[in-house]
Amino acid sequence: MTLSSWIAELLLISLTGAHGLHRFPENFVIAKRNDRNPVTLTCRTASSEPVTWKMDGEEVGFDDYLEKDGKNLIVQEIEEPFLGEYTCWTGEEKLSSTYLLQEAEVDEEIECRAKSYDCNFTCSWNHRGFKALRYGLGQECTKGQESCNWVSSSNRHQFVLSHALSPYAEERTMLEVTVEATDNLHFFRRTKSFYLRDIIVPDSPHIVRCQKVDQKLNVTVGPPSSWSTPHSFFSLEHEIQYVFRDDGMIQSSLSTLIPREISKLRVRSRDSLTLSEWSHPSLSAFALYMLSCVLTCLQCSLVCRIYDFFMTSPVCLFTYLWFRKGSVSI
Ligand SMILES: *[C@@H]1O[C@H](CO)[C@@H](O)[C@H](O)[C@H]1NC(C)=O
Ligand SMILES: *[C@@H]1O[C@H](CO)[C@@H](O)[C@H](O)[C@H]1NC(C)=O
């Protein structure tokens, strides 16, 4: 486990610990906005004993707004403070729980990205303030059918979905992603349809080698490890961006042969068949080198670190000056 994933895990544990783990409610009734019709909440029990109703832990009294109909409860006013969790009881025994939720508008779109044509892709939905969320793939979920295979998620804005499309066949049907969320009073829903090929964004490629070839530099670019294989079938197009040493001009090239008189270079990729979105650029060759210097300085104990600092910083400095002079070599 890397340090960053360890920290992320720790953060997640403390977050879920602090707020409690919220699951998507199993039973709920959704009322449309501005719907004047009363809603009937059912007490799911086979027993014939009389029941009492509680709302958010408090026993409900019956009045113009809340009426009892046998074991069921009729809610006349679909507004706060009548939204929330209703439970029915016989004595101390809880029989069932139902959330009365009001449909609410959301503006935030679902964002989806795939790093390759393999089975997984990720979606995120940055809608704030919900306590529980679930998501599903396919028409069953879009239509809200029983057969939908929902995946619940708590406090997560990003989730991984798997599709069953063949990466070798032409894609004819769209993927449909549905997200539902609740803050225990309101109900939010969003759907997005798209072709997998339209959400492809490869990871950053890496620079394998730079070789001097006459007056040019031949840059060998390696595809990101997450990209689909075989690479001969799933081909990527690389664009090399470089900065001229003399005047700081920035140029880019789709050819791997670039001028030698440069001070920095970096590279980005896209699917060459569908002309997907470009990946993030790789770290520039120079930045990568400085980073490895800094990491070496940080890695060991304090004593070693002080020693290291004095040993490596002249090397870093020397390399820096050497880079500034213009010899690019990795
Ligand atoms: C897809 O995601 C699942 C669950 O997150 C994971 O277990 C699996 O290894 C992933 N598969 C690939 C090919 O990345
Ligand atoms: C550049 O490098 C690649 C692989 O590293 C090689 O196949 C190619 O022939 C080289 N190009 C030139 C012009 O030397």
UniProtKB/TrEMBL annotation:
PROSITE patterns the UniProt entry points to: IG_LIKE
Top-rank lineage group of the source organism: Eukaryota
Keywords, ordered alphabetically: Cytokine, Disulfide bond, Glycoprotein, Immunoglobulin domain, Secreted, Signal
Main location: secreted
Signal sequence bounds: 1-18
CC terms in the record's Gene Ontology section: extracellular space
The protein's assembly and partners: Heterodimer with IL12A; disulfide-linked. The heterodimer is known as interleukin IL-12.
Similarity section: Belongs to the IL-12B family.
Protein name per Swiss-Prot or TrEMBL: Interleukin-12 subunit beta
